[in-house]
Amino acid sequence: MKAKITARLLKTLRPKEREYNVKDTELAEFTLRVLPSGVMTYCILYRDGNGRRVRYTIGPTTKWTPAQARDEAKRLRSEVNLGGDPAHDRRAKREHTLGSFLDEEYGPWVTKRWKTGAGQLARVRSAFAAFKDKKLSEINPWLVEKWRAGRLKAKRTPATANRDLAALKSALARAAEWGLLPENPLARLKMAKEDPSAKVRYLEHDEEARLRSALDEREEQLRRDRDSANAWRRDRGYPELPDLRATAFADHLKPMVLLSLNTGLRRGEVFDLEWRDIDLERAMLTVRGAVAKSGKTRHVPLNSEALAVLSGWRDQASGKGHVFQSRDGRRFDNVKKSWQRLLNQAHIGEFRWHDLRHCFASKLVMAGVDLNTVRELLGHSDIKMTLRYAHLAPRKMAEAEARIVAPPGNLVPFQQAAQNGSGKPGGGE
Fold it and tell me: Fewest C-beta in 10 Å: which of 81, 85, 158, 240?
């Protein structure tokens, strides 16, 4: 696309599925790069001393006006004509290590722009701690392949290694976009092969029974503790605490767990849930796009247990703000300690909160619900994520295969031949 790059043009440009460039009609080397994310950056194209084509990023449209960027492009063109190499000079002047890049450039940006930015940043820092002092230009596919081999040898799953690698690739892609690298060195590095059905941890019937029993026992213990505390207060003339036997739940944990089992919400979605997202009359729960991992709003029907849980919890909660609030009235950020104690009491091992989501999906599939409906309820953006549950519906697979078997009286010729023991229709020698 060719056009004069002006402020008016910037307002009309829209991102596409793939990045594209706008070549300036006034200054041939001056271009505007438009990314699928909507980010637009000014660049200048030139050839270095070795004849290699170089794209030098001037800066984003949020920091440079078209006129300023064009003047800078003219200055850079003059520098190139005199034998200079702006890209090489920039890298030599200030080349970040991975650690300094994360601290000074990528960290502040990603934590503001992405809902999961803090988690992504922490993942890169933790998984690639050994790369902290390496310059960005020193990180290459061979180095990362060695890292991956070590991770797999240490019994890390391919899926975990892939998530770590995806986080690093994303960070380096930004470094390339911002002109700190000539290109993303890991762009063509392939992910490790995964078996999507290899591990789907869900509760067996006896495990779920033990979990529910442990929840009830925990509730009763909390009520007994409150009864004891109030008896002590009465004897000393102190004001009594609210009677937990007058409420549907002793605290937040049981309704959280039961809601997750019956809706498949992610833990963060449960924490972010607000009363405005709950429609008890229509038995519907809304996961807002602002808090959903996919960024898209979805609606989840409430079955009878989920509806009863939220109705009972609303009667004892404030009914405003977050559905589940910590003691200081704020949003929960973790329930690790109480969750782990509950699992220990129920004698359930190797089970994460996220596996409650697997329980929800597994029950649906085993009940005969089609995978696309399961995908919509879970909020998966890609059916590939949902396919991990396909093996839990063997009856559906058997029914599908049974449909290709014709009744004995309606055998097609090759089936008759097979029954006659001959390779030809009609049998015989």
Answer: 81
Residue with tokens 């850079």: 76
CB-based burial, 89-117: b 16+ in 10 Å, e otherwise: eebeeeebbbebbbeebbbeebbeeebeb
- Tell me: the pLDDT tens digits for 339-366? 999 999 999 998 999 999 999 998 998 8
User: For the whole model, what pTM was predicted?
Assistant: 0.60
- Residue 299: φ, ψ to 5°: -115, 130
> Residue 87, SS3?
helix
**267, amino acid identity:** R
Q: What is the dihedral of CA 371, 376, 378, 379, to 10 degrees?
A: 130
Residue from 391, 392, 375 nearest 383 by CA = 375
Other C-beta atoms closer than 10 Å to the C-beta of 157 total 15
- Please state whether beta strands 284-287 and 298-301 pair in parallel, antiparallel, or not at all (unpaired): antiparallel
Contact in structure between 155 and 149 (CB atoms under 8 Å): no
Going by CATH, does the domain composed of 7-93 fall within 3.40.50.1260?
Answer: no
Helices (H) and strands (E) in the chain, counts: 18, 7
**pLDDT tens digit string along 40-93?**
999 999 988 778 888 888 989 988 999 999 999 999 989 888 888 887 776 666
Q: 47 - beta bridge partners?
A: 53
Would you kindly state where each structural domain of the chain is located, as residue ranges? 7-93, 99-177, 205-392
Contact 44, 30 (CB under 8 A): yes
Does the domain at 205-392 match CATH 3.40.50.360? Answer given as no
Closest CA to 75 of 44, 47, 41, 31: 44
Q: Cβ–Cβ contacts within 10 Å for residue 233, how many?
A: 13
Q: What is the 3-state secondary structure (H, E, C) of 374-398?
A: HHHHHCCCCHHHHHHHHHHCHHHHH
Q: Tell me whether domains 7-93 and 205-392 share a fold.
A: no
Longest distance between any two alpha carbons in the chain, whole Å? 105
DSSP string, 70-82: HHHHHHHHHHHHT
Q: What are phi and psi of 185, to 5 degrees?
A: -65, -15
Query: Which residues are CB-contacts of 234 (< 8 A; sequence separation ≥ 6)?
Result: 240
- Sheet with 30-34, side-by-side order of all strands: 20-23, 30-34, 40-47, 53-60
Instruction: Supply 14's token pair.
Output: 């829209």
